TrEMBL record:
This is Lipoyl synthase. Belongs to the radical SAM superfamily. Lipoyl synthase family. Pfam families: Radical_SAM (PF04055). Its EC number is 2.8.1.8. GO terms for molecular function: 4 iron, 4 sulfur cluster binding; lipoate synthase activity; metal ion binding. It comes from Leptothoe spongobia TAU-MAC 1115.
Length: 304
């Protein structure tokens, strides 16, 4: 499925087809849980990152009454090399009924913990920060007991981007999500090919500023392994996250969505993920999820 370079007799790089490791194969789960969620979101013309990103854990999360909703349409204004979400053309206008539709879906599914994420919407005046807040308000109006985690873009853009970014983050923090999540995605050296349009230090500043605004709010970030990073670089990244008081971390294996996306450079083994998880715990992260199939919202509503 993924390719590694192998030298041919002519000296040219020749792609080698590498079989997906057994530990990255898992059953699809109970069809009833998948179909119920898919039916409800299709009827309301809303989106989940579980479906758009083809998350391997979606049936498990649905069974545990959690899901991750993708706000502001399925089209991103950025073009990251790893992401399954659609990009490359103009994003859709915002659906004014989306916050209410998401709230109704959560109520129908009986979800106790939800993650709200979004595509990057650099075309919007506030980069979509107000839409997160509006959706949180709609959810709380009908599901007051449901916990809401946010997984946001960096909200960077427009005139005076640093000042505006801080205003947008202040709006988010004032809405009091259960957890604020912003992913650095990969180590600093690999940011440009992996995260087009985003910056490593800018992402660290996002997490730092949220803690500055509210020291009690849990913050979280995630890394995808397999882009060519080293263990030393991963540990350095974890140290950088702890330096901005990031509380929680997810570590998972990058899996190439299509041939148009970045190839996998390495499959990290379950034992290696366990080792990295131990390092993260030793560094002081209060919640660590580390494994090949771990994603940003995996077991998000659980402590420890």
């Amino acid at each position: 499925m993924e390719s590694l370079s192998q030298m041919s007799s002519s000296g040219a790089a020749k792609p080698e087809i590498v079989q997906l490791p057994d530990w990255l194969r898992r059953p699809i789960g109970r069809a009833s849980e998948l179909s119920t969620v898919q039916k409800i979101i299709k009827q309301r013309q809303i989106h989940t990152i579980c479906e758009e990103g083809r998350c391997p854990n979606r049936s498990e999360c649905y069974a545990n009454k959690t899901a991750s909703f993708l706000l502001m349409g399925p089209t991103c204004t950025r073009s990251c090399g790893f992401c399954q979400v659609d990009k490359g053309h103009a994003p859709m206008p915002l659906d004014p009924e989306e916050p209410q539709k998401v709230a109704e879906s959560i109520q129908l599914l009986g979800l106790t913990y939800v993650v709200l994420t979004s595509v990057a919407r650099d075309d919007l005046p506030d980069q979509g920060a107000g839409w997160f807040v509006a959706t949180m308000d709609a959810i709380r109006a009908v599901n007051p007991e449901t916990q809401i985690e946010l997984l946001t873009p960096d909200f960077w853009g427009g005139a005076n981007p640093e000042e505006k970014q801080r205003e947008r983050l202040a709006m988010i923090v004032a809405a009091q999500p259960a957890c604020f999540n912003h992913n650095v995605e990969t180590v600093e050296r690999l940011q440009d090919p992996v995260r087009r349009g985003a910056k490593y230090r800018r992402s660290l500043e996002v997490l730092r500023y949220v803690k500055e605004l509210d020291a009690t709010m849990p913050t979280k970030s995630g890394l995808m392994l397999g882009h060519g990073e080293t263990e030393e670089e991963l540990v350095e990244t974890m140290r950088d996250l702890r330096a901005v008081k990031c509380d929680r971390i997810t570590l998972g294996q990058y899996m190439r969505p299509s041939l148009a996306h970045l190839p996998v450079q390495r499959y990290w083994t379950p034992d290696e993920f366990e080792h990295l998880g131990e390092i993260a715990r030793d560094l002081g992260f209060s919640q660590v999820r580390s494994g090949p199939l771990v994603r940003s919202s995996y077991h998000a509503g659980e402590d420890g």
